[in-house]
Inverse folding.
């Protein structure tokens, strides 16, 4: 529940971040995202992974893409894999200048939590921390995902405690480093057998240190000329009503029926869902073999001839819009501008309670209640998870094996200047709030 003193912390947040940030930062308050200037933030995003390793290292390409994204009305990108040791300043500045925020996954192919043999170990923690270290310094970093579609069937819900443990430890790491409280959460596959147990599990419990700070779904139910009721979005809304943290669509864009019309955006960003949901990220920017692209960088070529063409699809150049999908999405977004609620008004009236932790069911959700989470290097007794499992120490396990699964389903700021002044303001505000 939001405490009565929340208004004091909100005022402190606005005064400190507003004074220090060139680009308004994003935070999670209750069930909504807000910018540091007090406006509710709605996502109009695009999945952006030009190359498997890191699309945020070519400044010139980022400038070209950011300009095109701005033309279509995007304000966010989701990037699934990055190199924490690379220089990202040029690309992050380019997107910040275009008003575009980064939603970034902390894991990579070798470090992702796997469903069949879940683990949360020191090598994963170190890799996740390195990504956070690199991107926390940019004001237009919006949030961090600890995983993408780790659970795809109810029978592997025993992996859920490892996801929640990753949330817990990355929150603790962020706070121990005195980083900005960039929200940390999870991107889930939209699996009926896991609804709404997984979303409730990740945000339930009395210990705030363990709860996810947002939840998101990769949803491909709304195809062609479907509707709010026919698509199943009405059920998603029902499951999310009263949810205690921000919830949004982290992938959408069904292509079963072509061309893609993106009429689901009117539901997500309109009166049916905008009071509960915080927007959506459309899959994806670049045209490649899966045929989800909104732009291309030229015609398909022989990959043996062009070193820039992965699977024959060029990965850089001037973005050329894919018609009519690009225009359809642009036109949808142009008509949708939810304003939401001001932070000052919301914080004075909101009362949010975490959901009850789900219980195990025969042949379905495995984890019973708020079972203990594994610490780094520990494993859960799978047979006992249905009755509050006790973690078992196994030492520092090796990292998960690599997977070929990337983004998508199978279906500018710089470091804050004047930090000393900012910290002084925080300490003074802390005294006043007490």
């Amino acid at each position: 529940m939001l405490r009565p003193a929340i208004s004091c912390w909100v005022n402190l947040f606005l005064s400190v971040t507003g004074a220090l940030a060139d680009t308004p930062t994003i935070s999670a308050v209750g069930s909504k995202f807000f910018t540091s200037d007090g406006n509710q933030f709605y996502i109009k995003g695009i999945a952006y992974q030009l190359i498997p390793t890191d699309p945020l290292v070519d400044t010139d390409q980022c400038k070209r893409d950011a300009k095109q994204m701005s033309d279509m009305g995007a304000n966010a990108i989701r990037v699934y894999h990055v190199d924490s040791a690379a220089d990202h300043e040029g690309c992050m500045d380019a997107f910040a200048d275009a008003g575009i925020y980064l939603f970034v996954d902390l894991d990579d192919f070798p470090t992702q939590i796997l469903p069949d043999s879940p683990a949360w170990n020191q090598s994963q923690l170190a890799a996740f921390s390195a990504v956070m270290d690199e991107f926390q310094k940019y004001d237009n970093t919006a949030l961090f995902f600890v995983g993408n579609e780790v659970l795809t069937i109810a029978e592997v819900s025993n992996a859920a405690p490892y996801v929640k443990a990753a949330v817990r430890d990355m929150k603790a790491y962020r706070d121990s480093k005195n980083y900005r409280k960039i929200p940390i959460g999870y991107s889930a596959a939209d699996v009926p057998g896991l609804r709404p147990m997984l979303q409730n599990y990740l945000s339930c419990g009395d210990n705030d240190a363990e709860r996810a700070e947002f939840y998101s779904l990769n949803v491909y139910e709304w195809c062609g000329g479907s509707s709010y009721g026919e698509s199943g979005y009405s059920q998603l809304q029902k499951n999310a009503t009263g949810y205690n943290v921000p919830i949004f669509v982290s992938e959408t864009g069904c292509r079963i029926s072509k061309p893609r019309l993106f009429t689901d955006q009117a539901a997500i960003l309109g009166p049916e869902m905008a009071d509960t949901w915080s927007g959506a990220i459309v899959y994806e920017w670049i045209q490649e073999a899966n045929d989800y692209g909104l732009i291309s960088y030229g015609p398909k070529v022989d990959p043996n001839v062009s070193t820039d063409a992965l699977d024959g699809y060029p990965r850089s150049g001037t973005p050329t819009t894919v018609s009519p999908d690009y225009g359809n999405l642009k036109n949808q977004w142009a008509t949708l501008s939810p304003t939401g609620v001001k932070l000052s008004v919301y914080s004075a009236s909101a009362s949010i309670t975490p959901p009850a932790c789900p219980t195990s069911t025969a042949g379905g959700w495995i984890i019973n209640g708020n079972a203990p989470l594994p610490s780094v290097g520990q494993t859960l007794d799978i047979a006992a998870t249905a009755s509050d499992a006790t973690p078992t120490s196994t030492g520092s396990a090796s990292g998960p094996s690599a997977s070929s699964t990337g983004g998508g389903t199978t279906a500018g700021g710089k470091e804050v200047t004047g930090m000393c002044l900012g910290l002084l303001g925080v300490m003074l505000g802390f005294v006043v709030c007490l």
User: Anything to note?
Assistant: The first strand starts at residue 26 and ends at 29.
